[in-house]
Specification:
Elements lengths: L3 E4 L3 H8 L16 E5 L9 H4 L13 H12 L10 H10 L7 E4 L2 H8 L3 H5 L6 H9 L26 E6 L1 H7 L9 H5 L9 H6 L8 E4 L6 H5 L2 E6 L6 H7 L6 E6 L4 H10 L4 H4 L3 H11 L2
Parallel strand pairs: 1-7
Antiparallel strand pairs: 2-4, 3-6, 4-7, 5-6
Length: 304
């Protein structure tokens, strides 16, 4: 089964597409239960930061370093990390949140937040080639990176940069469909739930890393604790997958779950309009990164 693809040209179209036709029989509300992820190029596969460690041509070349990376995060993060974490799944979420390469993949409950990440310009998403905390965070949060065949930016010559014609994508995941397929409850997992994910107790990130080949394949939705204001502002969640050898969309396809994904593609010529509409409804860096860096990044992009 192929992944459904829908072309949208405005935020209004996006909302119309994701709003259920009929109210929920229990709540009486038309509320979508999916999660969303924005990407700056519709051709990109869903690669985690761990998949991209070491490059993307090919990806997955350093996934066997996962345990070493997390151990060193534990070693050096102690002065800055809260001591009241419930378990090591919260530690993994904290590492992901701060940019450490992990097997977690970022999603959001908000289609507008995903559209924000999808419609950033290449310079906005990658910090114009210089260190920038918010740009770096935005790029890693939703997988922004240069397409392998992207043309150089032509703005220095006064021309329109080639990436502005690039189709963007907003992915929607029916995570409840995924949970049913792997015999999980139709509830997003908390860190405490992951402890007993494979029966009993004591299922940890370390156990997953050590026994990945022996564990039955699975994927699930993981709701992190509100580590800071950014988690809440972005309605952020993660997917956790047992497989680090292929992109998440290809993992789902291999398990007959391609129908759990929908691709909302924004044609290149409509990206600027959707971006302006997001600014009109105040979906921008100042709201999604509620600190001084977010304010500065929003002003730089808005007045560019």
């Amino acid at each position: 089964m192929e992944i459904a693809t829908v072309r949208i040209r405005s935020l209004g179209e996006l909302i119309d597409r994701v709003t259920p036709d009929e109210p929920d029989p229990v709540t009486g509300r038309r509320r979508d239960s999916g999660v969303y992820r924005g990407a700056g190029d519709s051709r990109w596969p869903m690669l985690t930061s761990l998949d991209r460690l070491g490059g993307v041509n090919p990806p997955h070349t350093k996934c066997d370093l996962e345990e070493h990376v997390l151990r060193n995060f534990i070693r050096y993060s102690r002065p800055y990390v809260s001591s009241d974490m419930r378990n090591d799944w919260e530690l993994l979420a904290t590492a992901q949140h701060h940019g450490v390469p992990t097997r977690l993949l970022d999603w959001t409950y908000s289609p507008f937040v995903a559209a924000h990440f999808a419609t950033l310009g290449r310079r906005d998403a990658e910090g114009e080639g210089r260190p920038d905390r918010v740009a770096d965070r935005e790029a890693r949060d939703h997988g922004a990176r240069s397409a392998p065949d992207a043309a150089p930016d032509a703005t220095a010559q006064g021309e329109e940069p080639a990436w502005r014609g690039t189709e963007r994508v907003i992915w929607r995941l029916d995570w409840q469909r995924v949970h049913r397929a792997f015999d999980f409850p139709e509830l997003a997992m908390l860190a405490e739930d992951l402890d007993g994910l494979r029966g009993g107790t004591g299922f940890t990130p370390w156990a997953l890393m050590a026994r990945a080949r022996d564990i039955a394949p699975f994927a699930c939705l993981f709701e992190p604790p509100t580590l800071d204001a950014r988690i809440a502002a972005q309605s952020a969640v993660f997917t956790l997958c047992s497989d680090t050898s292929r992109a998440f969309d290809r993992f789902l396809d291999a398990h007959g779950l391609a129908d759990a994904l929908t691709r909302f593609v924004i044609p290149g010529e409509d990206v600027a309009r959707v971006r302006d509409q997001l600014d009109l409804v105040t979906i921008d860096e100042r709201r999604l990164f509620p600190d001084l860096d977010g304010v500065a990044t929003r002003l730089r992009r808005y007045y560019s």
